[in-house]
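hiii so um. not sure if this is the right channel but i have a protein structure encoded as tokens and i wanna go backwards to a sequence. like what aa goes where. can anyone help
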């Protein structure tokens, strides 16, 4: 009986190892499929439908606390005294996650020694408030901030104050020398830029026929240089139309093939919007299910909200 018992134990152990192996394979495949489901390339860019309306106008996609947590994860280590000398600028340098602004007086963390101060509103709260006021997904505002700001602010660990002046590229048309940005100084400041950009996107939604591009077929420039030509694009929804009004160019095939690089006659704003959103938040499609963790997390370059 003792030998039989030993045989049974060995058999049980073999069966247990088998099931553990199978379970491990199932778990591996689940997460591997999850990762593949979230994988995206610039080849997935749809010029006529960059992002669904249901995603673009989901103002409740993130709370202010979730925005703050997201920024904290993007830049866990900041350097208020910099890492090298910057001609013409002195500390403190203020990361986006630590930035506060008095929206009445315009005073910022730069004048207040860095970080929070009495009467100041955090960057996360400013973004959240603008999203709520104008019905724009705060994720959209975060992506625009990465796309438009110098640095960009979403990753710069010791930005200078001037980087916040035109953080959203609002009131900065490509009408300067050699198609450079020609910014309106009266629209400068982080709070003004965030709020104005959200307002502008809502205005596009409410007045879709007031601009050069419309829903339907359009000839969209490849770059500010008109000699680079245009692409015939069927704009399918208001959100995509809004992106083209905000940044009136579509990427050429070379720009899509060379992400995140640059090419001749290339413009990258809408390509980058699509890629940045996809890498951070998953699909730009409202009807696509993306498996999500049960808590706020940044994993494999994708940020999920439970």
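sure thing!! here u go:
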């Amino acid at each position: 009986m003792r030998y039989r018992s030993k045989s049974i134990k060995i058999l049980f152990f073999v069966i247990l190892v088998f099931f553990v192996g199978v379970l491990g394979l199932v778990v591996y495949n689940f997460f591997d499929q999850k990762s593949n489901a979230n994988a995206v390339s610039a080849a997935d860019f749809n010029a006529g439908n960059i992002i669904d309306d249901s995603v673009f106008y989901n103002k409740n996609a993130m709370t202010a606390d979730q925005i703050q947590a997201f920024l904290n994860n993007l830049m866990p280590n900041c350097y208020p005294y910099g890492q090298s000398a910057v001609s013409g600028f002195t500390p403190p340098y203020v990361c986006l996650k630590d930035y506060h602004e008095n929206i009445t007086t315009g005073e910022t963390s730069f004048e207040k020694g860095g970080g929070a101060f009495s009467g100041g509103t955090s960057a996360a709260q400013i973004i959240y408030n603008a999203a709520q006021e104008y019905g724009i997904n705060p994720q959209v505002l975060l992506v625009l901030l990465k796309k438009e700001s110098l640095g960009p602010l979403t990753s710069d660990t010791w930005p200078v104050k001037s980087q916040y002046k035109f953080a959203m590229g609002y009131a900065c048309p490509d009408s300067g020398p050699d198609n450079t940005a020609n910014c309106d100084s009266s629209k400068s400041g982080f709070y003004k830029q965030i709020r104005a950009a959200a307002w502008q996107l809502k205005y596009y939604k409410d007045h879709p026929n007031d601009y050069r591009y419309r829903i339907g077929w359009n000839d969209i420039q490849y770059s500010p240089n008109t000699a680079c030509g245009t692409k015939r694009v069927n704009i399918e929804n208001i959100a995509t139309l809004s992106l083209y009004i905000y940044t009136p160019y579509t990427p050429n095939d070379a720009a899509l093939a060379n992400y995140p690089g640059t090419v001749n006659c290339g413009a990258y704003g809408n390509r980058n919007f699509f890629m940045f959103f996809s890498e951070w938040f998953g699909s730009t499609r409202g009807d696509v299910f993306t498996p999500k963790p049960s808590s706020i997390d940044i994993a494999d370059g994708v940020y999920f909200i439970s």
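oh and The beta strands are 100-101, 121-122, 216-221, 230-235, 297-299, 302-304.
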